[in-house]
Amino acid sequence: MLTNDPDQIARAIFDAFGEYDLSFPRRQHRVDAGIVIAPDEPVAISVSWFGTATRQVFSEQQRELYGFTTCLRGQGSMTQHGMDLAWKKGVTLPLQPLGPLRLETDAAFKCRDVVFDKAMLHDFYERWSGRPLDKQALVFDLAPFDGYLAAKWAQAMHVLGPSGGGCDLPPLAKATFAEYLMALLLECHPHSRRTLFSRPAPRRAVRDAVRYIEDNARHALSIGEVAQASGCSIRSLQIGFRCDLGTTPHAYLAKVRMALAKNDLERGEGAATVADVAYELGFRHLGRFSSEFRSRFGEYPSEVLRKNRARVNKPRDRV
C-alpha cells in the first residue's frame, strides 16, 4: 500500500501486530509513505516507511512479540533499560518484551520487521535445545547483529523477493523458513540462555532421522518435526548429522528432494514443467535449483526432461 497519509500505515501495522503509542513530532504535510505486509503464519514480515519523523513507545504489556528490525534507509535510535542504540542502513536490532521500549526515526527511515510470537519462539527454543525455559523469558542482547548473522539474515530475506515483504513460499518451504530464522537467532545472536550444547544425538537417532526424512520428503517437513520423531533436540540432531554424515539435516533434506526431482523429471509424466517439479518439492528459486541440479547430476533439469520426452515421443517401429 502506498499513501501520503502516515496514519494509514499506522493503522495497517496496528491491525497486524497490535497497537502501541505512535506520534509524529515533526509531521510533514505531504509525505511518501508505504507498507508491504505479510502477516503470514508462522512468521510475520513487513516493510514500512512513514515519510515523516516518528516516535514509537511500547509498554511491556504490549510487547508479546519478538521483532527483529532492519534499517533499509535513513536512521533512527532505540532506547531500552537505559541503553541507547543507533540505527543506520543495514543494522538489525532486536525488539523484545523486556519493559518499556522507545524508538525514534527520521523522515527517511524505512525498515523491515520480522516478527515472531513469543510463545512460538519459546517453544522452538525448548525443542532446539532440549531444555525447558521454566517460564523465564528468552532475552536477546540489546545489540546489533554481527557481520556473520547480518549476512545470513539478508540472504534469508532475499527469498522474499525485491520488496522483502512478501513471503510467497511453496508450502514445503514455509514449514522450514521460520525455523531456519529462529535457529539463526539462537545460534548466532547472544541471548540469556545461550549455552554450548556440544553433545550429539545418538547414532540411532541420526539413523531414525534419515529414515524419517526419506519417508516424508514430499510433504511439508520441518527439522523440529524430524528431531521430535527421532527423540532428540534440534541442536543435538544438527551436531549428530555433522559428526556422522558430515552435513546438516536441512542439507540432507535438500539432497533427498533433489533426487526426487530428478526421478520426477526422468519419468516426465503429463505436461509437468521443470518449474512445476521444483515448486512441488519446495524449491522456489528456479535458477538456483537448476544450478544445484547440474552441480549434483552433471546436466540441467531441462535436459533431463527433454531427453525423457524425446524417448516417450519416439515413434515405435512398425512390425
From TrEMBL:
Can you tell which superkingdom this protein's organism belongs to?
Bacteria
Residue ranges annotated for the HTH araC/xylS-type domain, each copy included: 207-307
GO MF annotations in UniProt: DNA-binding transcription factor activity; sequence-specific DNA binding
Pfam families listed in its UniProt record: AraC_binding_2 (PF14525), HTH_18 (PF12833)
* Entry keyword set: DNA-binding, Transcription, Transcription regulation
By its UniProt entry, which PANTHER family does this protein fall under?
HTH-TYPE DNA-BINDING TRANSCRIPTIONAL ACTIVATOR EUTR, HTH-TYPE TRANSCRIPTIONAL ACTIVATOR RHAS-RELATED
Record's protein name: AraC family transcriptional regulator
- Taxonomic source organism: Lysobacter enzymogenes
